[in-house]
Amino acid sequence: MKELVLRPLEQPACGLSAESISCDVFAGKSVEEIEALEVYSGNRRRRLGDFFSVSGEAGDTPGETRIVIEGDVPRTKWIGRGMSAGEILVKGSTGMYTGAWMRGGRILVQGSVDSFAGMMMSGGELEVQGDAGDYLGCAYRGEWRGMRGGSILVHGNAGTEAGHCLSGGRVTVMGRAESFAGVRMRSGLLVLGSAESRVGAQMTGGSIVVLSRTEMLPSFELVDRVSSPEIEGVSFEGVFEVYAGDLAERNPKGRVYLKVE
Amino acid sequence: MKLVLKNGYVYDPANGVNGEKMDIFIENGKIVEEVSGAKEIDCSGMLVMPGGVEIHSHIAGGKVNTARLMRPEDHLRNVAPRTSVTRSVCGYSTPSTFLTGYAYSKMGYTTAFTAALPPLMARHTHEELHDIPMLDKGALTVMGNNWLIMHYLSEGRIEHACAYAAWLLRATKGYAIKAVNPGGSEAWGWGRDVRSLDDRVPHFDITPREIIRGLMEINERLSLPHSVHLHPNNLGRVGNFTTTLETLELTRDVKPSRERQVLQLTHAQFHSYGGDSWRNFSSEAESIAKAVNSSDRLVLDMGQVVFGDTTTMTADGPMEYYLSSLTGLKWANKDIELETAPGVTPFVYSEKSPVSGVQWAIGLELALLVESPEKVMLTTDHPNGAPFFTYPKIVAWLMSAKSREEVLERLHRAAQKNTVLGSIDREYGWSEICWVTRTAQARSLGLESKGHLGVGADADVAVYRIDPESTDPARDYEAVERAFSATALTVKGGEVVVRDGEVVKVVSGRTLYVDAGVGEELEREVLKDVDYYFKRFYTVNLANYPVQEVYLTSPEAVKVDSGVR
User: In Å, how far is A188's CA from the nearest CA of chain B?
Assistant: First the structure.
């Protein structure tokens, strides 16, 4: 695997749309070609090289390419959009839409990610060592068929509506998720260290596991109590209350597991 | 501005021209006998037809915009930045106004009518039409659930109903009388629907049968260019073909005032359903086609379904509510006080679904079983059956039994079992395609200068990059689809606007509306009632209601002297 290093230069005052920072785009290109890639700062077209110094070498294919971003880029959006293979390591925090439409490969963010990380993902891995903003692993605005595959792991906390319309794959938040985690979820697995409130509102399928007690919506019914269950192919230890819902929806098949012991 | 399109294979069936190699002469936006010193464009080896005419497509209006708001995810499709001539665009089932114009034009269309104009939304609709470039436009004014129409008809005051309809067309700058689920959308205001022609409309002493018959009588007394354009009751319901047949039967005692039909059965596919539950849902296209074949007062447009993701929208609120309760997807209601009640919900037509498969087959069956192509119009009821971007696919299906068979084999077996499509080997020729994509529409709408290439016609021409002499569309249907997706040349009003599938010039087109004159005395009386209705019921002031001509791009009034006094 070959490595390409992006060292942030002066960052723009408004957001930088950098869909081109992806192993699929970088693969087979020279450093000069990569510097010349198009990015948008607000509505102005700029070069990637205006905001990053580029060094190293890209692989011939996305799978042989590893991108390292040396530092914080909290305003850089769309990193790894639609990526199919390869690796991106960010030694800092990223802006919105990190890993959106990702199909394969791996992104590791050592800092935090802003909102909409992993939106509409269908494969690959996104790992965040800090926190995530709102709409982690969500569906695009208006869409009811959300993330279909792959996995997201956040070591810290997540904002509101984590796993919004989740339709497959796995989203894990080891810390606390704010309200409406798993809203309109259809299938897949959402694991939360703890959850603020309204977990699984409008869910019709899939499983949510909360590793501590939380208040359930009145439209969920306590149906069982299980110990050390296997949920969507993953084993959990401890005693869990099982809730069925959201009964306010048509044909609800969702399950919420609350760890009680 | 002069132009000669040289040596193309011309199809102009309205003038008896079927594939003759000839030149088309253009001067000042019209087809002429001959010009000299004009720019010549070589069209040899290519197919030349009149510009396409769209008769039923939801391209502008309140519910189109509601759908745009409701489906941001749809705007991810067809995203393209601006060019030196075109604006940036996006959308598929809810395309932006600009994309609507560009995309129709690339397919060789030069005229399009938006399918439903609720009077109260007229100003907004014309603002959207203003922003649809490339096309001549018109709008069908919705009247099937209008309080004053129902009031006059229930009291048997037909002259008053005529005068009000004429005023409404003028006030909304509409082109024809459209009716959507007559009586049903009004009943929806009370959480109900009508399920047969003889159900009574709540709070009005009238039935759908009386509304439909009344509207046809109004239309013929006013002698309007188009006939009544009807979306019958029970759209999309299992077994609805009996309602449809009963409705078609009503045309028997209506005398046409012009040489045209008295009723257009619109999106006929959605009204040709047999069976008594979704389990034995089947095609009744044969019954509907038989009724159309045996009458000279009926035409239909297909309302073809094409598989994929789309947005349904119609001035039939109860139907949209019913559909969204079947799919569990989001929906919106857009109630239009005193006039109608549209709804909007997304829908996915799936090849694996038995119902979608049968629906797909029904549209094609109708087009193939109605003998005369003069009575058939290609539509998808955009975007209800599919977005209009799919038209080239449908052209290919009509021309090739093999291409239909290939789809049929992929579908749920219900599509073979519950339809007769597999046994139909009829294949359209180029002339028939010309009829169902432009000429029949122009005839139905009474557009004398469109849908043909005779001297005096509008210089709206589509040139497709396919050689009708050497191409066998039955076998080479993919080439047909490609050719109809992007013209070699689209000429609008005598100017080349599309070349090799790219928009090269943006023009704005005209907006056509009907101005039917009635007796002054009668009109004054009716306006008194209108005034009362506005004071008593409407939330807007009468003075703010009629749309002024300034809202229209190049307005063109089609004047009719009805003789209604």
Answer: 19
Cα–Cα distance measured from residue B176 to residue B187, given in angstroms and rounded to the nearest whole number = 24
In chain A, the residue whose alpha carbon lies closest to the alpha carbon of B347 is A144
> The tokens 């005229």 sit on which residue?
B111
Contact status, residue A242 vs residue A255, Cβ threshold 8 Å: yes
Nearest C-alpha in B relative to A251: B328
Task: Write the residue in A142, A250, A251 that is nearest to B72 by C-beta.
Answer: A142
Answer yes or no: do A142 and B74 touch at CB < 8 A: yes
pLDDT of amino acid B243 = 98
In B73-178, which ranges are continuous DSSP H helix?
97-106, 122-130, 147-154, 158-172
* B383 and B306 Cβ atoms separated by less than 8 Å: no
| C-beta atoms of B328 and A251 within 8 A | yes
pLDDT at B182 over 90: yes
Contacts of A142 in chain B (CB under 8 A): 70-74
C-alpha dist (Å) from residue B369 to B179, B282, B323, B407: 26, 16, 28, 19
- Averaged over B369-394, what is the pLDDT? 98
Select the residue of B73, B329, B330 nearest A140 (Cβ to Cβ). B73
Question: H or E element: which one contains B368?
Answer: helix B354-369
> Does A250 reach chain B within 8 Å, measured CB to CB?
yes
Q: What is the mean pLDDT of chain B?
A: 96
Contact assessment for residue B503 and residue B497, using Cβ atoms and an 8 Å cutoff:
yes
Instruction: Give the number of other Cβ atoms within 10 Å of residue B350's Cβ.
Output: 15
pLDDT over 90 (residue B564): no
Task: Give the gap in angstroms from C-alpha A173 to the nearest C-alpha of chain B.
Answer: 26
| Residues A129-188: tens digit of each pLDDT | 999 999 999 999 999 999 999 999 999 999 999 999 999 999 999 999 999 999 999 999
Q: B314 CA to chain A: closest CA distance, Å?
A: 20
Q: Token pair of A219, please? A: 């439209």
pLDDT band at B335 (very low <50, low <70, confident <90, very high): confident
Q: Which residues of B touch A250 (CB under 8 A)?
A: 325, 328
What pLDDT sits at residue B315?
85
- The secondary structure of A16-70 as a DSSP string is EE-TT-SHHHHTT--HHHHHT-EEEETTEEEEGGGTEEEEE---SSGGGEEEEE-
The ipTM assigned to this model is 0.88
Per CB-CB distance under 8 Å, the chain A contacts of B74 are 142
DSSP, collapsed to helix, strand or coil, labels residue B148 as helix
Contacts of residue A144 in chain B, CB cutoff 8 Å? 329-330
Cβ-defined contact of B329 to A144 (cutoff 8 Å): yes
Determine contact, residues B175/B442, Cβ cutoff 8 Å: no
Quickly count: other Cβ atoms within 10 Å of residue B50's Cβ.
32
Q: Which amino acid is at B291?
A: A
The number of C-beta contacts closer than 8 angstroms across A and B is 19
Q: Quick check: B316 pLDDT over 90? A: no
Spell out the residues 6+ positions from residue B35 whose beta carbon is closer than 8 angstroms to its own: B2, B3, B4, B25, B26, B27
Where do the structural domains in chain B lie, given as residue ranges?
49-503
Candidates A238, A182, A245; CA nearest to A212 is: A238
pTM of the model: 0.94
Average pLDDT over residues B23-50: 96
